[in-house]
Fold:
Amino acid sequence: MSRTETKNPRESWWQRLKGGLARTSQSLTGGITDLFTKRKLDAVALDELEDILIKADLGLDTAQRIVEAVRAGRYEREISPDEVRAVLAAEVEKVLAPVARPLVVERAKRPFVILVAGVNGSGKTTTIGKLAQKFRAEGMRVMLAAGDTFRAAAIDQLKVWADRTGSAFVARPEGADAAGLAFDALEAARGAATDVLIVDTAGRLQNKAGLMAELDKIVRVMKKLDAGAPHAVLLVLDATTGQNAVSQVDMFGKTAGVSGLVMTKLDGTARGGILVAIAAKFGLPVHYIGVGEGVDDLETFAAKDFARAIAGLEGRA
Structure:
């Protein structure tokens, strides 16, 4: 499905999700169909199935879990591709269900501060804009803070989203101290009775130590005004980076205290299974997933829908 089609407002979320995950689904189910058409389930077939699952970036643990579930009660019997896909969907759902938790904005914590982290190019700034759109649609007062002060383009892009969504906007000149900007933004948000303050951050991995120190400073400075801030730390991950996303969760989690994940660009890869591997390894809540660039292409994560989409099945059974 093309990006143009993805943006079609007449499409349901299920249609956009299934279309966005088509490459991942085709990679998985094409191999399964080839492997299990008129064939008994033997050791060779199970090994080949495990290879297919690992190549889709589902992770070794999940791949082995699925293989064992397929094997159970079916060994040396003929098994259909549809049976395998049904088991695949069921096992993936079991892995994802515990982490499929929506982001809850606690209205009593005003402003509810969301710190958004992620490497450059992950879709971080666009995700912030889409979140602002959602919160504004729910009647909340939103403020965006351009904490990626190292890139003028990031500041400009966030300003566009603020204007588009009717959100307040706080920025400083390029190169300004990001922690100081975050402090000023929180102070301004408190004074303006803002419901949600979303703070963008830099994502320069060329200097990991400097980036992590900056994130740590932003958190420490905001706590001087509000001991509970930030109330949520979202890590935005680009699905197309595959295994690199795993190391990013590890790295950012140790420094910024990541509380939840947003996975973007699932429509641009055949390895959307990486989300399953991350869920199995870290157990962090997955709040949202994105399957396109349209404002409606970021939705609350639902384990059953995702599992059925990557297995090439129809909507909820």
Notes: Residues 208-225 form the longest helix (18 residues). DSSP finds 13 helices and eight strands in the chain. The beta strands are 112-117, 142-145, 168-170, 196-200, 232-238, 260-264, 286-290, 298-300.
